[in-house]
Amino acid sequence: MKYTTASESELQNLLNESRSEISGYEFEKIDLTEYELKSAVFIDCKFIGCHLANCSLLNVSLRGVVFEDCNLMGINWTEVRKNGSFSFKGCKLDYSSFQAVDLRGVSFENCVIREADFSGANLSKSSFSQANLSGTSFANANLEKADLRGARSYFIHPKFTKIKDAHFSFPEALVLIEAMGAKIEI
């Protein structure tokens, strides 16, 4: 896809206009830390190396949006409009909340997602390939057919998380056995 490159000031202007949609733009190294993007609609946009930490996404629509190498720490993703589509590659998503969000098929490839909350989220067919998931909660989440190969530092309790047909890699997969109370010696 061919994107139109926009600067930080151009994005600010787009957000301040009464435009209903921001479509086909690429934003690189833009700082929107703690910015309120209320009711913005992004379609087929790409954010590269942007800082959106603690940004408010209240009623924001994300359709075909790619976040690459972005700082997205502390975002409450439960505020984003439903039925969106987005992906993450190499992003920092520490302390984010995805509670009960439908994230079917979303890619979190090579992301750092520490102390985040995916409890009750639908993560079926999602990918956490090479992700660092230290301290992240998956309580009552659906990870069926999800790909966690290469993911590390996670704790998933199979009694409280759906994991049917999910893919895990060794040695991290041992945590599933440890969660059931088994003792593992190597």
The proportion of residues forming helix, as a percent range, comes to under 10%
How many beta strands in the DSSP annotation?
8
Radius of gyration (Å): 17 Å
State the assembly state of the protein chains: single chain
Total number of helices = 2
Secondary structural class: mainly beta
**Which sequence of SSEs, written as H and E, runs from N to C?**
EHEEEEEEEH
The major pleated sheet works out as: 8 strands, parallel
Distance between the termini: 49 Å
Mean pLDDT: 92
Share of residues in strands = 15-25%
**pLDDT < 50 runs, ≥5 residues:** none
Judging from the principal axes of the Cα atoms, what is the shape?
elongated
Structural key phrases:
mainly beta; 8-stranded parallel β-sheet; 2 helices; 186 residues; elongated
Q: What does it look like?
A:
The structure is a single chain. The chain is mainly beta and 186 residues long. It contains 2 helices and 8 strands; from the N terminus they run E-H-E-E-E-E-E-E-E-H. The radius of gyration is 17 Å and the shape is elongated. The N and C termini lie far apart (49 Å).
Short summary:
With 186 residues, the protein is mainly β. The chain is 8% helix and 16% strand.
Secondary-structure blueprint:
Layout: E1 4-6, H1 8-16, E2 22-23, E3 25-28, E4 41-43, E5 46-48, E6 61-68, E7 85-89, E8 108-109, H2 174-179
Parallel strand pairs: 1-3, 2-4, 3-5, 4-6, 5-6, 6-7, 7-8
